[in-house]
Amino acid sequence: MIKMFIESFKNMFQKPDTIKYPFEPSPPPKGRYRGTILYEESLCIFCDKCENVCPPGAILFEIVDYETNKREYNYNPYLCIYCGACVDECPKADEGCLVQDDTTTPVLGRELPKDKKLGYLVNRVENPKELEKAWDELEKRAKKSREEYAEFKKQQRLKKQREKKAAEAKKKAEEQKENTSSTNTENKPS
Question: Does pTM top 0.85 for this prediction?
Fold first, then answer.
């Protein structure tokens, strides 16, 4: 009890260990900080691992060109829980494709943050109040684009199979024609 009284008395004359948060900004955290996810499109191989592993579904790829498999990365920083699972899963994270920055996303207020590294959706939406609606529409479009891409790939496979069968049939017909003509030549009287 006496030790506690002595410690309390000492603390009355020391500088407080707490921060003056509302009036002064908090000091930056030490060590590995989990902040906003930033994306570098030129390094992406579009493996979709980040999208598949994201617990809240804050990352979506929308297929915009079926021929080249061109996709658009979309990230919702206000849906993200900053767990870092996407960065851990990304095979190109070491090269800087997907990184977790040491800054937080600003509060959803009058305007949305505009940065190419946040993806396409956040940069297209002007009014923050429309972000949720735009994200819902994007989810539907992304699902539809995947279904259409799967159908496109199926049609491509079927087309290749038909071309292969046609080539085989043509080759077989040519071989039969050669066999027939060589047989006719052998059977001709000299």
Answer: no
